[in-house]
Amino acid sequence: MEVWFTEDQTKHLRIGCRVREVLFSGQSPFQKVAVLDTVEFGRMLTLDNVIQTNIKDEFVYHEMITHVGLNTHPNPKKVLVIGGGDGGAVREIVKHKGIEKVVHVEIDQMVIDVAKKFFPELSSGFEDPRVEILVDDGIKHVKENKGVYDMIIVDSTDPVGPAVGLFGEEFYRSVFDALTEDGLFVAQTESPFFNSSLITQVTTTISGIYPLNRLFWAVVPTYPGGYWTFTMGSKKHDPLTVELNQGKIAALKTKWYSPEVHRSAFVLQPFVKELLPHK
């Protein structure tokens, strides 16, 4: 008998993966959590039947949501990660030797526990002594910590359920206040093919709060459309003009991110440029 996992990526689009085995299935206070051993992508984490990450393509997303910002800021020492309970973002951050503290705020303990058990490749950074894990609400955390972080990464799920508040103006203003005077933040901001109105909304909001607002992109095969965007809000440092330390980046041992990719990720196609606010 064939077993397939199917995700409704939009009301009119589905993606299906053949499953060897269901490794875990549980209901947390926030969402349904499952780990599947798929034929095409290996171990896969899903939340409420939506693909979050998998062993085959995870490195693209995690390298881009972290290293672009970390190499834009000249000396990031304290970093906050909101969401991303799988640990992939934390794993990438701790590759940077100059980082002194990583605070990881994840609302769902079950996601952290599942990552530690089934995704050691992603969750390895949790063991770094510089990492502090807080099971808490990220929105509340940024409100309570002003002027603390050099960089904040919003590694959220889609804008439904517990993640809705992570895409609003009040939250982005709280993130601004939680950053140091030259801090910056990066958030995942969905697909320009299927979430164009969200990208317009988010970039318009951020451009009204932060002196610099940049959209960049990467290819993540299991996310809707494969083309995925990230948005940076920065108080001072511009990822387009920063001088990249080639030796530092080479030492990171990445699979996707490089100095050339850093620059090219900000080259937007005309249809994507049309989604951005024009000042």
UniProtKB/TrEMBL annotation:
Source domain of life is Bacteria
The positions annotated for binding S-methyl-5'-thioadenosine are Q31, E106, D137, G138, P162
Q: Does the keyword Transmembrane helix apply?
A: no
**Residues that bind spermidine, according to the entry?**
H62, D86, D155, S156, T157, D158
Q: Which GO terms describe its cellular component?
A: cytosol
Q: Where in the numbering of this chain does the PABS domain appear? A: 2-235
Is Transferase tagged as a keyword? yes
Which biological process terms from the Gene Ontology are attached to this UniProt entry? spermidine biosynthetic process
- Active site, UniProt feature: D155
Which sequence ranges are marked TM in the entry?
Answer: none
The reaction(s) catalysed by this protein are: S-adenosyl 3-(methylsulfanyl)propylamine + putrescine = S-methyl-5'-thioadenosine + spermidine + H(+)
Instruction: Cite the entry's keywords alphabetically.
Output: Polyamine biosynthesis, Spermidine biosynthesis, Transferase
Q: In which pathway does it act?
A: Amine and polyamine biosynthesis; spermidine biosynthesis; spermidine from putrescine: step 1/1
Q: Name one GO molecular function term.
A: spermidine synthase activity
Q: Which InterPro entries does this UniProt record tie to the protein? A: PABS, PABS_CS, SAM-dependent_MTases_sf, Spermi_synthase, Spermidine_synt_N, Spermidine_synt_N_sf
| Known partners and oligomeric status | Homodimer or homotetramer.
Q: Which family does it belong to?
A: Belongs to the spermidine/spermine synthase family.
What is the official name of this protein in its record? Polyamine aminopropyltransferase
Q: Which organism is it from?
A: Desulfoscipio gibsoniae DSM 7213
Taxonomic lineage per UniProt?
A: Bacteria, Bacillati, Bacillota, Clostridia, Eubacteriales
